[in-house]
Amino acid sequence: MHQPVPLRGRIWLYALAFLILLFLVLPVFVVIPMAFSSSRYLDFPPPGWSLRWFERFFTKVDWYESMLVSLKLAVATVVISTPIGTAAAYAIHTGSHAFFKWMRNLLLLPLIVPHIILAIGIFYIYVRIGWLGDFTGLVLAHAMLAVPFVVTTVLSGLRSFDMNQEMVARSLGCGRFDAFLRVTLPQIKGSVLSGMLFAFVTSLDEVVLGLFIAAGHNTTVTKVMFGSLRDEIDPTIAAVSSMLVIGSLTIAFALMILGRDRKTARQG
Amino acid sequence: MNQDLPLRKQSGDVRRLAAEEAAVAHTQPLSIEIAGVSKSYETFRALDSVSLHLAAGEFVTLLGPSGSGKTTLLNIIAGFARPDQGRVLFGQEDVTLRPVNKRELGMVFQNYALFPHMTVGENVAFPLKVRRVGKQAIAERVAAVLRLVRLDHLAERSVTALSGGQRQRVALARAVVFSPRIVLMDEPLSALDKNLREEMQVEIRQLHKKIGATTVYVTHDQREALTMSDRIAVMNKGRIDQYGSPEEIYNAPTTTFSAQFIGETTLLPGAASDDRSHVVCDGCRIRSAKPLPDARDLVVALRAERMLLPEECGETTNRIPSRIADVIYQGDSMLVLADVGSGQRLSIRRSLRVGLGAPLPATGEQLMLGIDPADVIVVRAN
Q: Among partner residues A162, A175, A267, which is closest to B113 by beta-carbon distance?
């Protein structure tokens, strides 16, 4: 057995860990006070407090319409990428042929290739087929980015799942798909849900592809943010960012609580 | 597992329970015919034209070491694997190409594979739900089967809160709740400790008697096979080495593999004498009550518990000159190890019943061990 290192010897480790966490979290929370700033500019710390930037967001058509577009887009991305990503993960996990390894790497490609390169490629294709500024085009492009996240999370869920259970279900009378729905899916639910969350956030946060192919009525909120950052720099951006941050955190916490409930229910 | 026993049933219940058990048990078993089945994985020949007939209602064990093909054969019967050659018939029907879920068989797996997201009752109800049985009927059947495996008081429990033996019983209940005509079991007891395993062997045997389904049981444990089976198929290297009742397999093995794999056995290689009256081994000559197999190179298989000490030998007993190498105390019995000829190590097991048998020899002693010709097993050398 190892002797535990005394607290005095470990304290620097805690300090370091704290600093790293602070560094990771701070930028996220800096924008929140700025959103309630009374200043016309992005000042930190804010000289006074007001809600006018939230008011401006909800009264200016550009802003809230683009937010609606982004939300719709994120939902559509989830709807498309979740079944595709889950099915792909299942195939990769259960398939023994070398093709599946190859397929996995192919599917993960959008994670590795810089978005700017994807954006240029997609832009030229969409110009040809007339999908620039088209909602379907945006959804498909975002789904491409989201699928790798779903594949990765669902794969990790499947790794801790005992595939024998599907064999049992089949021996007890289920068809393959039926066995998946009744036995596998309920048990990898958590991974699929977090894959969905990743897909949602990936789409919501996406800016580079949006800059190239979103336009007109289908302009995403991130594109508007980018534009406003370049042109006017007012704290509306901070207000939007705060809402995005709060939204994402809420979903993440909801998932955490959901996961905990499931665990305790299973043990009880 | 005493804590699992329900409180003693009241006398009025007994008749009702018997009726319920009968309701669960009305399976019409199906025979299984395996005809010339072969299966290879890459270059490994897992099954080499295996043929086997299982009569309806029989409990047959596929016994063999790992890699002998027993699990592959079970998977082919189940429909998880397709044979490269040969056919599988249930009754008169060819099911070789039928998918698993259409074969209507109950299966119990090595690690139970209970569904952790369901309670005990839900697990057992699963095959009935899949078959769209009505709610009321499901409730009745599940209750009856759980009573059959003595788990009715745990129906609402989560399966993760069960002990190993209880999980195994849930897996059994789930496999038989829809009255399958064939039940397959893949080393279902290997995860349990010895005492519990022996208890479950008897329980599975009794369950089989109540339900009557044709049962194929895979194990590498010879004792388990002997305890439970109507017939045993000894498997080795993708072939059936011998197929017969436990008594046949134990008393009259036909190959060196069967002889050695089952029981505590010493093999002495030898050759038939010219008049074929006995086998000439290294340092001894051994006569068998049965005719010798038709070959020159033979192997004598000696069961440890059939060996005799000098005081027990009679006129016709075979004598084997030997030197005692060790005497080992094992609780219920003593194991005596003796060297025969030029370095063959022979095992002798003596049951430790009080007041029975000759005094044990001491280490280093030279003496004549004996074996009755009726107890001598002679097989062809391979």
A: A162
* Residue in this structure with the two tokens 């018997």, named with its chain if needed: B18
pTM attached to this predicted model = 0.79
Q: Average pLDDT in the A126-152 region?
A: 93
CA distance A152 to A107: 10
With a threshold of 0.85, tell me whether the complex ipTM lies above it. Answer: no
Q: How confident is the model at residue A14 (pLDDT cuts 50, 70, 90)?
A: very high
**Helix runs in B291-339, H state only:** none
User: What does the alpha-carbon distance between residue B260 and residue A93 come to, in Å, rounded to a whole number?
Assistant: 41
Contact assignment for A174 to B101 by CB distance below 8 Å: yes
Given an 8 Å threshold on Cβ–Cβ distance, is B178 in contact with A173?
yes
- Alpha-carbon distance of B108 to B370, in angstroms, equals 45
The strand order across the sheet containing B182-186 reads B105-108, B182-186, B214-219, B59-63, B231-236, B239-244
CA dist B105 and B172 (Å) reads: 12
DSSP state of B185: E
Cβ–Cβ below 8 Å for B178 and A186: no
* Percentage of chain B exceeding pLDDT 90: 60
DSSP letter string, B236-268: ETTEEEEEE-HHHHHHS--SHHHHHHSSSEEEE
Pick the residue from chain B with its C-alpha nearest to A181.
B130
Task: Please give the DSSP secondary-structure letter assigned to residue B132.
Answer: T
Using a 10 angstrom Cβ sphere, with 0-12 exposed, 13-18 middle and 19 or more buried, the burial of residue B98 is middle
Residue among B113, B160, B184 whose CB faces A164 most closely: B113
- How many cross-chain Cβ pairs, A to B, lie less than 8 Å apart? 69
In this structure, what token pair is assigned to residue B369?
A: 């061990």
